[in-house]
Amino acid sequence: QITPAQRLQVLPEQFFAALVAKANARAATGRDVINLGQGNPDLPTPSNVVDSLKAAADKPQYHKYPPFRGFPFLKEAVAKRYKEDYGVDLDPATEVAVLFGGKAGLIEISQCLLNPGDVCLVPDPGYPDYWSGVALAGAEMSFMPLRAENAFLPDYEALPAEAVDKAKLMFLNYPNNPTSAIATPAFYEETVAFARRNHIVVASDFAYGAIGFDGKRPVSFLETPGAKEVGVEFYTLSKTYNMAGWRVGFAIGNAQIVEMINLIQDHMYCSLFGGIQEAAAEALSGSQQSVRDLVATYESRRNALYGALEEIGWKADKPAGSFFCWLPVPEGYTSMSFANLLLEEADVVVAPGTGFGANGEGYVRLGLLTTEDRLREVAARIGRLNLFK
Ligand code: PLP
C-alpha cells in the first residue's frame, strides 16, 4: 500500500478531467454529444505559427536544452505585444517569465508566496485551478463573491476583515471565466489601492484578454498605475491564438515575483522546446489578423446562440468577453441537476456553475466552442425539453 503525501491528499479529482470523462462515456455509447463543457478552443492555430514550428524543428540549436528561463527573443516579443496592445512598458529580461501555459504559473505563484496558515482571496465563482495551487501550498482560501448585481466584480469593502488581514495573495480574472464579465479601469485602480493598503499580491489571470465583444477592448491589469508594484499578470497564447495544446504562457509584471517564479521553475523544468518558443514569438509578432477574426467568430457564434435561446424562452445577458456564456438555470433545478438533465435528455454537455464555487449555484456555463449550426442545434434540443415557456 503506497500512501500519498498529505499535500496530495488535499487535491480533489480535477473538475474538468471528471467532466470530460463523463462526456466521453456518453459519446462512447454512440450518441451525438455536443460538448460545450470544457474551454477547449475548436478553431485551428494560425498557419504562420504552424509553419514556423515546422521550419524550427529542423534547427539543430533547438535540439539541445533551451536556456532555463526561455529564449530572450520570446520575452522580447511579449514585451512588444504588451506595448502595442496595452501601452505597457516591460523589461523582457526581468519582468517576463516563460511558463508551460498560464496554468503552471497559476499554481506556482501560490508556492512562491503562501505559507501554511496564510490566506488567498479567490473569486467565487472562479477558475478551479486557483484552489489547487492554494491547497498544495497548505494555505487557506477566502472566497470573494462575484454577483450579477455588482457586474461580477468583487466588493472589497464587504470582505471579512480577518481574511483580508491574513491574505498574502489574491486572484482576479477578467475577462472572466465563467461569468464573461470584463473589468473596468476604475475597478483595477481600486484593486491596486486595496492591494497596497493590505500588502496583498495581485495575480491577474488574463487568459481571455483578447476576447471582448461589441467593440469593447478588455483592459490589462498592468495598464493601471502602480499595478507592477503589487502584482503580475498571467498571459497565455492558448485562447488568443488557438494554441491550447502548445502550452505557452507568461507571468508578466513585478520583477521580484517573476524572479520567484523563475527560481521555482529552474528546479522543475528547463523551459519549452525552442521550436515552440520560435513559433510562439511568430504568433506574437506576426500579423494579428487571426486574432481579430477569432473575436469576430466568437461574436457571431454568441449572437447565433443567444438568438436561438431567446426563441426557446431562455433569457440571459449576452457575454461581454471570453468565450463563455453564464446562463441561469430554470426554476426547480440546481446547476448540477440541470447539467445532468441536459446531458441525459439532450446530449449536451455544459459545466455546472457549482464547479466554479458555491456562488455558481443557479447557473451553467456553455462555451462558444462549435459552429453556429451546432450551437443552434443545442438550443433546439434544449427547446424540445419545454422548460422555459
Ligand atoms: N485561466 C483561465 C481562467 C482559464 O480558463 C484557463 C484555461 O481554460 C487557463 C487559465 C489556463 O490556460 P493555459 O492553457 O494557458 O494553461
From TrEMBL:
Cofactors required: pyridoxal 5'-phosphate
Residues in Aminotransferase class I/classII large domain copies: 32-382
Chain segments annotated as transmembrane: none
One family name in Pfam for this protein: Aminotran_1_2
InterPro entries: Aminotransferase_I/II_large (IPR004839), LL-DAP_aminotransferase (IPR050881), PyrdxlP-dep_Trfase (IPR015424), PyrdxlP-dep_Trfase_major (IPR015421), PyrdxlP-dep_Trfase_small (IPR015422)
One Gene Ontology term of the molecular function aspect: transaminase activity
CDD domains named among the record's database cross-references: AAT_like
UniProt keywords, alphabetically: Aminotransferase, Transferase
Name by which UniProt lists this protein: Pyridoxal phosphate-dependent aminotransferase
